[in-house]
């Protein structure tokens, strides 16, 4: 067996060189995704009641002095925060979904299908209705903290379930559906006791919208996202190894339980911060990773950035759509992603069933 | 090399003891050991306990360190375990699967070094042609080879292989056993291989451990460990041990053994 191979080994280029050639295609696709994202971003800034030209936008971002006062307000206070938040939230959900699917070994896992997002919504609603910001912590901080509390409870439940029954596709998804129903009922209960002001805010949330974007929110989401990235990079090889199966990963020396806990915590933080500022935006965290998997395979060095880019692109394109369907009216983004996402989700579900 | 000592080992499954009183020490360095026994006797559980993936009673020590006190990472530097299941059919290509298996825990190795190890293991197993195929497009046998590559890429001292040849045809079975033997010789290490095929084990293992009746039935070189009586007690079959024209022992099974009550 060894004799036959050594002769060939000298003639053929080394595997590492062949591999570099092999991944060239992936890097090309990453660049394509990036360009698509930039295009959707610029289009997003251009689109609105006052249409801006491409050069207004690009020139204005590079040198604000070229814009008139009114234009500057439109670009910097309205359009840019909206477009940037779309990308950031999409990226956050893409990352959360990708890591969740690997760590639960379940292609149907995502913050929205498992109920993590709804649990975070419940936490956030709680903070709003009982006006917890009156105790000294500003609303932009207390709401994410409570959302994280809610997400943590959901994650704890999923962790327990996975521990007792194994995180098989059916169990976890069915559990997620049950959790979503239960949490929806609880959110309704909170709505029932809420006053008009908070009620409006909660309703806005359950629909999911980027309309209340502000630079402060962008800084918070961006900071949380950037803080999670180094940890994701640290785990990148372990996560790739985990794709082979839990027993294999353990055999290489990966402490799978610890890895799973750390990643689930990270997913909780990412989901909570996303939900706090935009409400329930489903299916980005489910579909993003699938697109990434198809285009980049499952080596997490490409899969994770791919899923981040795909998530960002989906939400950026969805927000563009939400502005364009009915001119002058912004349909909540959560409705748009759900309408696009549900058929995709069903297609995935059916293809999983067929694969058995 | 790493020294393995097993003393008074007890293995239970769902609170029911399946193997007990296992004491195995003084493994000869550089030897390939076949782990045999009927279905459900506890071969897999035995290997999983050695790999630190299942609880056990008694003592398993690597170089004097108790197995249950080692972290996954510490153990992985000495011991590698190949599960009975094949690696998952994912979108990973074989090359990535093997590289990640090495890099997941060995942060101390340079990328260049890992690439060299990976290159070597693909040559050793003669699977360069599937290096850039995704696992979900491979046959069961090919995936089993990738799984094996993931295990031996780190060139561990002790290999625990649970039916490494179950999905392979004859040629690849022999190839795998050859590679394992060479590796064990080079490292003066140890390979414990659970096998179903008695004759494959007799032919390729330096010694055998035969489980049955809730413990170790016999150990030793193939022609010492395997006798018609042992065969009867372990598998409830009646058979003979013959010597082939080249002097190696092999087993011929004549039929089911019927106990006197029947």
Automatic annotation (TrEMBL), chain A:
Claim: Mitochondrion is one of the keywords in the record: no
Membrane topology: Multi-pass membrane protein
Predominant localisation class: membrane
Recorded GO MF terms: transmembrane transporter activity
Family annotation (Gene3D superfamilies): ABC transporter involved in vitamin B12 uptake, BtuC
Family the entry assigns: Belongs to the binding-protein-dependent transport system permease family. FecCD subfamily.
Name of this protein: Iron ABC transporter permease
From TrEMBL, chain B:
Signal peptide, first to last residue: none
Gene3D superfamilies reported for this sequence: P-loop containing nucleotide triphosphate hydrolases
Statement: the UniProt record of this protein carries the keyword Cell membrane: no
UniProt KW Protein biosynthesis keyword: no
One GO MF term attached to the UniProt entry: ATP hydrolysis activity
The ABC transporter domain, residue ranges: 4-238
Superkingdom of origin organism: Bacteria
UniProt keyword annotations, A-Z: ATP-binding, Nucleotide-binding
Protein name as annotated: ABC transporter
Biological source species: Thalassospira profundimaris
């Amino acid at each position: 067996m060894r004799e036959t191979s050594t002769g060939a080994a000298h003639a053929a280029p080394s595997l590492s060189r062949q591999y570099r050639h092999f991944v060239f295609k992936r890097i090309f696709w990453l660049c394509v995704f990036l360009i698509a994202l930039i295009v959707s971003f610029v289009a997003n800034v251009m689109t609105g009641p006052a249409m801006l030209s491409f050069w207004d936008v690009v020139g204005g971002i590079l040198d604000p002095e070229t814009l008139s006062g009114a234009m500057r307000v439109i670009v910097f206070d309205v359009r840019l925060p909206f477009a940037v938040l779309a990308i950031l939230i999409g990226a956050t959900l893409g990352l959360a979904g990708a890591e969740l699917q690997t760590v639960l070994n379940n292609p149907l896992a995502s913050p929205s299908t498992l109920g993590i997002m709804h649990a975070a919504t419940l936490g956030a609603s709680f903070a709003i209705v009982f006006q917890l910001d009156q105790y000294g912590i500003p609303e932009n901080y207390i709401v994410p903290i409570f959302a994280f509390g809610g997400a943590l409870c959901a994650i704890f439940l999923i962790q327990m379930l996975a521990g007792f029954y194994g995180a098989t596709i059916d169990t976890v998804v069915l559990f997620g559906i049950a959790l979503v129903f239960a949490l929806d009922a609880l959110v309704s209960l909170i709505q029932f006791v809420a006053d008009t002001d908070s009620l409006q805010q909660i309703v806005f949330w359950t629909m999911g919208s980027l309309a209340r974007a502000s630079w402060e929110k962008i800084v918070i989401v961006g900071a949380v996202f950037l803080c999670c990235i180094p940890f994701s990079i640290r785990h990148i090889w372990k996560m790739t190894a985990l794709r082979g199966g839990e027993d294999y990963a353990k055999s290489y020396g990966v402490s799978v339980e610890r890895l799973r806990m750390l990643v689930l915590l990270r997913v909780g933080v990412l989901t909570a911060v996303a939900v706090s500022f935009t409400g329930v935006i489903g299916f980005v965290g489910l579909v993003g990773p699938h697109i990434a998997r198809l285009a980049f395979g499952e080596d997490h060095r490409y899969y994770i950035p791919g899923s981040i880019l795909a998530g960002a692109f989906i939400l950026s394109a969805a927000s563009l759509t939400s502005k364009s369907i009915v001119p002058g009216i912004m349909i909540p983004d959560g409705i748009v992603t759900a309408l696009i996402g549900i058929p995709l989700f069903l297609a995935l579900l059916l293809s999983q069933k067929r694969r058995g | 090399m790493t020294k393995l000592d097993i003393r008074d080992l007890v293995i239970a499954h769902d609170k029911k003891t399946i193997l007990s009183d296992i004491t195995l020490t003084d493994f000869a360095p550089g030897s390939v050991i076949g782990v045999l026994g009927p279905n459900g006797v506890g071969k897999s559980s035995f290997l999983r306990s050695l790999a630190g993936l299942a609880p056990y009673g008694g003592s398993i020590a690597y170089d004097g360190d108790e197995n249950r006190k080692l972290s996954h990472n510490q153990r992985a530097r000495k011991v590698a375990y190949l599960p009975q299941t094949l690696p998952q059919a994912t979108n990973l290509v074989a090359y990535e699967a093997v590289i990640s298996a090495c890099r997941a825990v060995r942060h101390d190795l340079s990328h260049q070094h890992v690439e060299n190890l990976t290159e070597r293991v693909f040559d050793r197993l003669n699977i360069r042609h599937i290096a850039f195929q995704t696992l979900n497009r491979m046959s069961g046998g090919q995936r089993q080879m990738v799984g094996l590559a993931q295990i031996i890429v780190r060139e561990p001292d002790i290999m625990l292989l649970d039916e490494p040849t179950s999905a392979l045809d004859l040629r690849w079975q022999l190839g795998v056993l050859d590679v394992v033997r060479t590796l064990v010789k080079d490292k003066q290490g140890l390979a414990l291989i659970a096998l179903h095929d008695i004759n494959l084990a007799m032919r390729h293992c330096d010694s055998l451990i035969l489980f049955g009746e809730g413990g170790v039935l016999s150990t030793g070189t193939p022609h010492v460990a395997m006798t018609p009586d042992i065969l009867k007690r372990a598998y409830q079959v009646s058979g003979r041990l013959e010597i082939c024209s080249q002097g190696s022992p092999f087993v011929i099974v004549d039929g089911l053994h019927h106990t006197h009550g029947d």
